[in-house]
Design brief:
Layout (H helix, E strand, L loop, with lengths): L5 H19 L6 H8 L10 H19 L9 H4 L8 H20 L4 H10 L3 H24 L5
Helix pairs in contact: 2-3, 6-7
Length: about 150
């Protein structure tokens, strides 16, 4: 299977975000889409479009997989074991905890990493630039700590 070049997706996102803002007057972001998903039982708000955006992301991925010859699913125990060396219930627990931490962090930072780094910086928000620098510094530090704990760079 041949994949699209990474830069094509970057150009697409880079073109879509400001075009979306210019035509709708709204900022694109996924965190608030999940907020709408959590509020699905309440009367629809003017921001209900964010729910459809959030649902469209996995559906778009599925459509892409189907157009590319179909999704592949593996049930091999070696492939089902996470990078942390756990599987089954422990893996589900780690994924749930990671999701909770990401959600909490996005709420505390006023948006997720993508929202700040792609949309916020495109809109010229200084707070998004500061948040992105913090995300990058934290990511670099965590990577180096993981490398050092794993026995250093090979």
């Amino acid at each position: 299977m041949e994949t699209w070049p990474f830069w094509l997706a970057g150009l697409g996102i880079g073109a879509f975000v400001p075009l979306f803002a210019l035509t709708t007057g709204k900022a694109l972001g996924i965190s608030s889409g999940y907020s709408e998903m959590c509020a699905i039982t309440k009367p629809a708000s003017a921001e209900r479009w964010k729910l459809w955006f959030a649902l469209g992301l996995p559906l778009g991925g599925l459509a892409s997989a189907l157009l590319g010859g179909g999704p592949s699913v593996s049930t091999s125990s070696a492939e089902m074991t996470s990078a942390l060396g756990v599987s089954g219930a422990a893996q589900l627990l780690l994924l749930a905890l990671g999701g909770a931490f990401i959600g909490y962090g996005a709420r505390m930072a006023g948006g997720c990493t993508s929202g700040h780094s792609i949309v916020g910086i495109a809109q010229g928000a200084k707070s998004s630039l500061i948040a992105t620098i913090g995300f990058m510094a934290g990511g670099f530090a965590a990577t180096w700590i993981a490398i050092l704990l794993a026995g250093g760079a090979q």
